[in-house]
Design brief:
alpha+beta, Alpha-Beta Plaits, five-stranded antiparallel beta sheet, three-stranded antiparallel beta sheet
């Protein structure tokens, strides 16, 4: 960091150089073709440009960018990964009913959801671990071709209503994950909708901190290795930023339908949570000498 007085002196000197350059440019412009004297950039002679460069060098002011437009310093990425056993499953599911009237659709959806909630309670799922994600009642229309006064035209016709009720369920006993899915699928019947299940850890903070530490250490090791190969000395750390955060692994579940639209009979659902990889990435910049 240069001193204030030195910085002001350097900038004043640069201003003087630029004024001289401007005067020279205006003078030559008046003698040239057209003598436009208009705005635009000021062409600098080689001696003037050299003087400006020497002034910057003498001042100790350095640019954030090196030659060729590349950022100065040594830039590296570090990745830290920690493998853990998940202890929590997040099941996203719901019911979707279609009927000719709002009341019929709402009643069908409500009955199915009540049955689902009862099945969850029977497997030890607490009400605190069930959260409504989305509830919606929508009219449904179709376009039909009609003939009026000898002309064919398409008209929108109301055919019924759709009620959707989606919930998120926390499954704390992962060994029961498949059993839970089978139970709600049976309870909800043909209006059940199971979207996906995600596995995570309820308290990821300790594992994230460990992954973050590994990422920073990897970045430092990379920087030291690269500086050594380049015959340079690693300076101080000038920038450090986390560029990613851990995320749970998701397993999508698809339930096929038979030709007549009914849910087919199927064997017990087996769910394998597996391992969960928590990753943290960092970007770091060191000065080099």
């Amino acid at each position: 960091m240069i001193g204030r007085k030195k910085f002001i002196g350097v900038m004043a000197g640069l201003a003087s150089v630029m004024l001289v350059a401007a005067a020279c440019s205006n003078g030559s412009g008046a003698e040239g073709e057209g003598g436009s004297g208009g705005g635009g950039s000021i062409p600098l002679s080689g001696d003037v440009a050299k003087s400006i460069g020497e002034a910057f060098a003498a001042s100790g002011i350095t640019s954030a960018y090196g030659g060729g437009g590349n950022q100065a310093g040594l830039h590296v990425m570090g990745v830290g990964s920690v493998t853990v056993d998940p202890d929590l499953g997040i099941l996203n599911m719901g019911v979707e009913a279609r009927e000719s009237t709002v009341e019929e659709a709402r009643s069908t959806a409500a009955g199915a959801m009540n049955a689902v909630r009862a099945a969850l309670a029977g497997l030890g799922v607490s009400d605190d671990d069930i959260k409504t994600q989305f509830f919606n009642i929508q009219p449904e229309y179709v376009w039909r071709e009609v003939v009026e006064n000898g002309f064919r035209e398409n008209k929108q016709e109301l055919v019924g209503y759709r009620v959707t009720n989606s919930i998120e369920v926390k499954i704390r006993d992962l060994e029961k994950a498949g059993e839970v899915i089978d139970a709600v699928a049976t309870a909800g019947g043909d209006v059940i909708r199971i979207n996906n299940i995600a596995f995570t850890v309820e308290d990821p903070l300790p594992f994230e901190m460990e992954a973050r530490e590994l990422a920073v250490k990897e970045a430092r090791a990379k920087a030291e290795q690269m500086a050594g190969w380049a015959g340079a000395t690693l300076g101080r750390l000038v920038f450090l930023s986390e560029t990613s955060a851990p995320s749970p692994v998701r397993t999508n579940l698809a339930f096929a339908e038979s030709a007549d639209g009914a849910a087919p009979a199927f064997a017990k659902t087996e769910i394998a949570p597996g391992d969960l990889d928590l990753r943290v990435s960092v970007q770091a910049v060191w000065s080099i000498q």
